[in-house]
Amino acid sequence: MDTQLQQIALAERMQTKVLALWEDEKSLKEIRKAYAKGATDTEFQMLIEMGRSTALNPFLREVWLVKYGNGAAQIFIGRDGYRIAAQRQPDYDYHLVDAVYSNDKFQMWNGEVQHQYEIANRGNLVGAYCVVKRKSATRTMYVFVELKEYDLKQGLWKSKPATMIKKVAEAQAIRMAFQSTFAGTYGEEELPEEKSRIRDAELVDSIDMPKSELMITEEQVSKIDDLMMLGDISYERINAAIKQFYKKEALADLTMADADNFIIRLEKRVQNELSQNQNTASVIDHADKPAEKSENPKEMGAN
Predict the structure, then answer these.
(1) Contacts 24+ apart (CB under 8 A), 103-109
(2) Do the domain assignments include residue 32?
(3) Domain annotation covers residue 144
(4) Is 118 in the same domain as 162?
(5) Complete DSSP assignment for 24-45
(6) Would you give the end-to-end CA distance of the chain in angstroms?
(7) Which residue range is the domain that position 147 belongs to?
(8) Burial zone of 297 (CB within 10 Å; 0-12 exposed, 13-18 middle, 19+ buried)
(9) What is the per-residue pLDDT across 56-105, written as a single tens digit (0 to 9) for each?
(10) Do 70 and 53 fall into the same domain?
(11) Across the strands, what pairs with 75?
């Protein structure tokens, strides 16, 4: 099986495992405690239905719920969550997002974005746009958001404003393109920080499930993929190692703790193989080179 098919199979297995989270009673208790504090039974059921329909993982902060006092709860989806769920849609073709600065040449012409800029001296940040193309549509969906409408001038809005405003544009465009899937959700960058952002430290502290029970993360999978490419290691070797060391069938079956351990093993294996290859190359290079004549009379046998 080629690499692309292996990656598709892995994505499907991970999607299946995420869906299983939304059916498991223990997982649902942890999700409610960490990612739906204060939610009523009805509101939590809304989160469950969103999780099931999108196959997003709350433990990776792809989807969660926030309750503001006695007000209605709101469901938030992270930038990666929007991307993952959108790319799973059968009608998804592609989407593009970028920031716009005052010195850029930017316009919408006949329904198409025309955007040109030089890296140096782009001027002041103005906003961001996102276009989403569905296979069934003849034109892209388009959203432009202005920085002044969302900039809180604090936190990440102060240090990384382009990143933040792009997230807003991306969330709105994907919601518009796939309304039936994402209706009623928000990106955390779209509301004031004190309401929309849940601190990562607080979330981690509120989760009782150890790494030995949580499933492998996308970040860990990406790390393993990078090491496989670096060491030119096939999926067959990876699966054989997983069966040998963890008694599991495939990468997607690993827990977070398994994956941490496996990454350490893989890093050592790649480093050893790269070192051996370098040593072999050095020996070959040395053998191919003609012996250099010594300029030392004694080494040349002179009296």
Answers:
(1) 108/142
(2) yes
(3) yes
(4) yes
(5) -HHHHHHHHHHHSTT--HHHHH
(6) 68
(7) 90-167
(8) exposed
(9) 999 888 999 988 778 889 999 999 999 999 999 999 999 999 999 999 99
(10) yes
(11) 65, 185
